[in-house]
Design brief:
By secondary structure, this protein is α/β, with parallel strands linked by helices. The protein has 2 domains: 6-165, NAD(P)-binding Rossmann-like Domain (Rossmann fold), CATH 3.40.50; 171-290, N-(1-d-carboxylethyl)-l-norvaline Dehydrogenase, domain 2 (Orthogonal Bundle). It is built from 14 helices and 9 strands. Helix 1 runs parallel beside helix 7 (126-132) and helix 9 (168-196) crosses helix 12. The N and C termini lie far apart (55 Å). The model has no long low-confidence stretch (mean pLDDT 97).
C-alpha cells in the first residue's frame, strides 16, 4: 500500500498538514494548490509539486481533495485542467472538503461516468487534529471504496467511521457542526458569566473540565475566549458556510434548529465586521459585546 501513489489538491490550513502526514506515512505524494507557494514544506519532505489538478490525477492512484466549498470542489474536479481530465478509470477520489450531500452525490455520479470512484470524507478536529493526525473522519461511499481508502485516511485521522452511501459523510458533518454551534455558544456564555461574576475564568475551566461540562471546545478554545483573541484554527467564515448547509438540510426535512440559526446570525455579524478569518471561537466576541465587555 505505501507504493500507492497519492495526490493531494488543496494546501490550506487543514490540507497542508494532512498532506504532510500522508507523506510522513511513506506514500509517494504529488500535490497542487490553486495559489502558488504552498508546497515548499511538502517538497522538503519528498513530495512532488504538479502544475495542475489534472497532472496530480494523472500521476496518482488516489486523489485527496480538501478545499473550501462546493464551487471549489467542482472547479478542482471538473474545471479546465481538473482532476477528471487526468484521472484514469479505476482511480479513487477522496473528498475531505465540507460541502452539501446533494453536491457530493452529483460529483460522484459525474466521476463514476468516467470510471472513477469517489467517497466523501469530511473531517473534524481543527488545525490541531490535522497536524497531529488525530482527525475524526466521517465517510460516505461504497464499502469497497471506503476500505480501499482506509490506509490513507488512517494517515490523517484517528477515528474513521463509515456512515453509509455517498453523501452520508457530509450529512454527518452537518450534524457535527450543528452540535458545535451549541457548544461554542454555551462555553462563551458560561465564561462571560464567570468573568462578570468575578471568578478566575482559568480556574473555572479547570474545575469544569472534569465534569459534565467537559468538551473539546472547553479544553481547546476557552483560552481564546478568555483572552478575547482568536488565532486561526477554523475560520468563522468556513463554519458559517457549514452551518448554512445544515440549515438548508433542516428546512428540507422540517427540523427546527434554533440554536444553529442564532449561531448563523452571530457569525454573519462577525463576518460583516471583518472577523471572518478569526477562529470560530470568536463567537465569544459577540457574547462579550452584548455583555458590555
Amino acid at each position: 500500500m505505501p507504493d500507492t501513489h497519492v495526490g493531494f489538491c488543496g494546501l490550506g490550513t487543514m490540507g497542508l498538514a494532512m498532506a504532510s502526514n500522508l507523506r510522513r506515512a511513506g506514500f509517494p505524494l504529488t500535490v497542487w494548490n490553486r495559489s502558488p507557494g504552498r508546497a515548499e514544506a511538502l517538497i522538503a519532505l519528498g513530495a512532488t509539486e504538479a502544475r495542475s489538478a489534472r497532472d496530480v490525477a494523472a500521476a496518482s492512484d488516489v486523489v485527496v481533495v480538501c478545499v473550501s466549498d462546493s464551487a471549489d470542489v467542482e472547479e478542482v474536479l471538473f474545471g479546465p485542467g481538473g482532476v477528471a481530465d487526468g484521472a484514469t478509470p479505476g482511480s479513487l477520489v477522496i473528498d475531505c472538503s465540507t460541502i452539501g450531500p446533494a453536491q457530493t452525490r452529483a460529483f460522484s455520479e459525474r466521476l463514476g461516468q468516467r470510471g472513477v470512484a469517489m467517497i466523501d470524507a469530511p473531517v473534524s478536529g481543527g488545525s490541531e487534529g490535522a497536524v497531529s493526525a488525530t482527525l475524526t473522519i466521517m465517510v460516505g461511499g461504497e464499502e469497497g471504496d471506503v476500505e480501499r481508502a482506509r490506509p490513507f485516511l488512517g494517515a490523517i485521522g484517528r477515528s474513521i467511521t463509515h456512515m453509509g452511501p455517498v453523501g452520508a459523510g457530509q450529512t454527518t458533518k452537518a450534524v457535527n457542526q450543528v452540535i458545535l454551534c451549541g457548544t461554542y455558544l454555551g462555553v462563551a456564555e458560561g465564561l462571560v458569566l464567570a468573568m462578570r461574576a468575578g471568578l478566575d475564568p482559568e480556574r473555572v475551566v479547570a474545575a469544569l473540565d472534569g465534569g459534565a461540562a467537559r468538551s473539546w471546545v472547553l479544553e481547546n478554545r476557552s483560552h481564546n475566549m478568555i483572552a478575547d483573541d482568536y488565532p486561526l484554527g477554523f475560520k468563522v467564515a468556513l463554519h458559517l458556510k457549514d452551518v448554512m448547509i445544515a440549515l438548508e438540510m433542516a428546512r428540507e426535512s422540517g427540523v427546527a434548529l434554533p440554536v444553529t440559526a442564532l449561531a448563523a446570525q452571530l457569525e454573519n455579524g462577525l463576518v460583516a465586521q471583518g472577523h471572518g478569518e478569526d477562529d470560530v471561537s470568536a463567537l465569544a466576541r459577540a457574547i462579550r459585546t452584548w455583555s458590555g465587555m
